[in-house]
């Protein structure tokens, strides 16, 4: 009789072979102590964090922490219940109010994670005989939501307005359609041409959802995301987001102006069949969101850091996935899995943490070292990161451009 | 001209041939996963090319049911003549 684990043997062998080359395991790291949004102790070494998605550095904001502690004292450690039963506390309503203020929408719905927000929206909004049209490089949570629902799923080539237009044009005119876009695509850190894409979606009568997980906090005049910067707010039907990046805690949400939006609380299974967020988490999220609305200086500093790291690494001869810093993600291209792991391992020993990313998470079989900047990085830290990248490339034997 | 399984099958083989890295003989029974060992990115490109050739949509959720080139030809014929 076969062991059900046998099907994973190729993955087990691949990992063993990689670790046999003597590198640290990039997917088994422990943060022993966390000192600030940009510094932690890893393997007993003081380490600069530049792979956390903690874009606005809200995790250690004193007001945010105070709000969390107060809620923990007043409401306890958890709700032990679904949002639709005993799991909606005053704090869950308050964070939804904070989101409505931040996004200027009439509705907001908070999920326990960003993954579940996408899972729920995709699986629920389009049913049998309807269509979801998504970018080929969409996040796993979008694909998984599509797999969970009954709609027909159509992909278009990444960020191609022409391909989206062509595919929408082939669908039955009368069928319901949901076009799914992301403001920032997190693997390469590139942004979507939302002005053109949303116009094409509307031309074909589709509803539009934009996932702003990696854009919230620092794109657009109010920090709402790439769709605000692109000026397409009036034509976007749903914005999906997360509390686990700029907001600095955990949770997910959907905001909308649709008059029937509230029905989703009854029909969206990833909302109904799970426990709600702990009171301390929604209290920290609400406080953080209210502060993010006015965080103009932080936004500016985050953009300065992102441009500085991009131009600095490029000047040293690293290949970057985008020509300029389009977002706060700077993805450094590596020649292959072993080289990528050697470079990651050398960086960790020099005291710099970045994300290693590989297929199938990455597009086109790429191996990447992904940096995500924080508004709390000091300019000197960015200089140190660039210096250590150069040292690590030498240790790992990574060729640099002239 | 009406497209039938007999006209579609050779066209599909023509589109698949550049992806046939192991240079195996393509037949209606050739399997995408076990014979051609196509990865998901290659499949995405192939699907897009077939869609453009026939000006159709092949929904992604349909793909797991299509194991062989012959089954794909049948599915394309059904959609084209829908």
Name the CATH superfamily assignment of the largest domain in chain A: Type I PLP-dependent aspartate aminotransferase-like (Major domain)
The stretches of 5 or more residues of chain A where confidence is low (pLDDT under 50) are: none
Structural class of chain B: mainly alpha
Largest sheet of chain B: none
Q: Can you walk through the features of this model?
A:
The complex is a heterodimer of chains A (402) and B (82). With 402 residues, chain A is α/β, with parallel strands linked by helices. Chain A has two domains: 17-56 and 296-396, Alpha-Beta Complex (Aspartate Aminotransferase, domain 1); 61-292, 3-Layer(aba) Sandwich (Aspartate Aminotransferase, domain 2), CATH 3.40.640.10. Chain A has 14 helices and 16 strands. Chain A has helices at 9-20, 62-75, 90-103, 114-125, 140-148, 161-169, 194-203, 226-229, 264-267, 269-272, 279-292, 296-315, 337-349, 379-396; strands at 31-36, 39-42, 45-49, 107-111, 131-135, 152-156, 177-182, 184-185, 190-191, 207-211, 238-242, 252-256, 329-334, 352-353, 355-357, 367-372. Chain A has a seven-stranded mixed beta sheet with strand order 4-12-11-10-7-5-6, sandwiched between helices. A four-stranded mixed beta sheet of chain A has the order 1-2-3-14. In chain A, strands 13-16-15 form a three-stranded antiparallel beta sheet. The radius of gyration of chain A is 22 Å and the shape is globular. With 82 residues, chain B is mainly α. Chain B is built from three helices and no strands. In chain B, α1 crosses α3 (69-80). The longest helix of chain B is centred in the middle third of the chain and has 15 residues, at 40-54. The radius of gyration of chain B is 12 Å and the shape is globular. Classes of the chains: A alpha/beta (402), B mainly alpha (82).
């Amino acid at each position: 009789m076969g062991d059900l684990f046998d099907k994973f043997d190729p993955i087990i062998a691949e990992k063993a072979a990689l670790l046999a080359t003597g590198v640290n395991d990039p997917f088994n790291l422990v943060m022993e102590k966390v000192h600030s949004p940009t510094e932690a102790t890893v393997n007993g070494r003081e380490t600069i964090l530049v792979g956390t998605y903690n874009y606005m550095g809200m995790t250690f904001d004193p007001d945010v922490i105070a709000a969390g502690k107060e809620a923990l004292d007043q409401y306890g450690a958890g709700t032990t219940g679904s949002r639709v039963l005993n799991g909606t506390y005053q704090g869950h309503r308050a964070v939804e109010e904070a989101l409505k203020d931040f996004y200027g929408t009439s509705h907001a719905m908070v999920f326990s994670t960003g993954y579940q927000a996408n899972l729920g929206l995709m699986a629920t909004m389009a049913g049998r005989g309807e269509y979801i049209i998504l970018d080929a490089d969409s996040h796993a949570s979008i694909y998984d939501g599509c797999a969970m629902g009954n709609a027909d799923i159509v992909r278009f080539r990444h960020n191609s307005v022409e391909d989206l237009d062509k595919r929408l044009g082939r669908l039955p005119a009368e069928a319901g359609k949901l076009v799914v876009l992301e403001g920032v695509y997190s693997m390469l850190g590139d942004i979507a041409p939302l002005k053109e894409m949303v116009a094409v979606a509307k031309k074909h009568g589709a509803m539009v959802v934009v996932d702003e997980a990696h854009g919230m906090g620092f794109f657009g005049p109010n920090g709402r995301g790439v769709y605000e910067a692109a000026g397409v707010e009036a034509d976007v039907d749903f914005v999906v987001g997360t509390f686990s990046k700029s907001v600095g805690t955990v949770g997910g949400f959907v905001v909308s102006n649709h008059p029937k939006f509230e029905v989703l609380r009854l029909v969206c299974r990833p909302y109904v069949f799970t426990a709600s967020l702990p009171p301390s988490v929604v209290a920290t999220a609400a406080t953080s969101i209210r502060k993010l609305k006015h965080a103009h200086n932080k936004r500016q500093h985050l953009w300065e850091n992102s441009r500085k790291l991009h131009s600095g690494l490029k000047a040293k001869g690293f290949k970057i996935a985008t020509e300029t810093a389009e977002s706060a993600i700077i993805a450094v291209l590596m020649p292959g899995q072993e080289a990528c792991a050697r470079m990651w391992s050398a960086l960790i020993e020099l005291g710099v943490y970045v994300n290693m990313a590989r297929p199938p998470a990455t597009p086109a079989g790429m191996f990447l070292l992904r940096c995500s900047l924080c508004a709390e990085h000091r300019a000197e830290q960015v200089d140190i990161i660039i210096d250590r990248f150069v040292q690590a490339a030498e240790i790992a034997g990574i060729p640099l451009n002239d | 001209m009406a497209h039938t399984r007999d006209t579609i099958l050779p066209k599909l083989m023509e589109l698949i041939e550049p992806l046939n890295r192991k240079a195996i003989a393509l037949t209606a029974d050739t399997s995408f996963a076990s014979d051609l060992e196509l990865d998901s990115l290659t499949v995405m490109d192939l699907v897009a090319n077939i869609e453009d050739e026939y000006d159709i949509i092949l929904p992604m959720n349909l793909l797991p049911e299509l194991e062989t080139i012959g089954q794909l030809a049948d599915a394309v014929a059904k959609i084209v003549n829908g």
